[in-house]
Amino acid sequence: QLQQQQQQEPELEQEWDIDEPTNGASPDKVNTLQTHLKQLQSEDPMQVFIVRGIARMGFKSQDILANYFMKYGTVKRVMVAHSKVRPMKGELGAGMARIRPGSLGFVVMESAASARLVLAAGIEQQIVGCAIRVEPFQQMAKQSFG
Asked: Is the dihedral of CA 104, 108, 109, 113 positive or negative?
């Protein structure tokens, strides 16, 4: 019975398969918004777009987005930072953080032309019954201090 229960429970580690850490770091240290933004600094901003309102897709949002946007061209990577929520005092499992699906993601296409096609399809798009917003990515200018 325990074995059957373990098979039914989703394993959170499987949800990090698109941007899995290669240096032995835990997924919660690698898949943060800050980390994704740093990684995007090395990408051509014309190949990147932002997707908002994806939390209703759940923990499979990375796979769902990759499969959906493939119709516009090759998807290089999809990055979604899931949120940690600490339960309130008195709740079951108090002190233990739980993870909820991220609502913001970044999609990197293989070409700028593919990204333009996605953006040309409109700001609001329907994916698996979820209304999402697709917006162009703009890299922040690097500030120099001194």
From this structure: positive
Higher confidence at residue 13 or residue 130? 130
Burial class (CB in 10 A: 0-12, 13-18, 19+), 132: buried
Kindly write down the DSSP assignment for every residue of the chain, as one continuous string: -HHHHHHHSPPGGGGG-TT--SSS--HHHHSSHHHHHHHHTTS-GGGEEEEES-GGGGGGHHHHHHHHHGGGS-EEEEEE-PEEEPPPTTSTTTT--EEE--SEEEEEESSHHHHHHHHHT-SEEEETTEEEEEEE--PPPPP---
pLDDT, tens digit, 9 for 90 and up, residues 61-102 = 999 999 999 999 999 999 998 877 777 666 665 566 778 888
> Tokens for 137?
């990515």
What is the spatial distance between Cα 64 and Cα 1, in angstroms, rounded to a whole number?
32
Cα separation of 55 and 9, whole Å?
19
Residue 99: name the closest of 87, 114, 111, 115 by CA: 87
- Digit-coded pLDDT (tens) for 110-145: 999 999 999 999 999 999 999 999 999 987 665 444
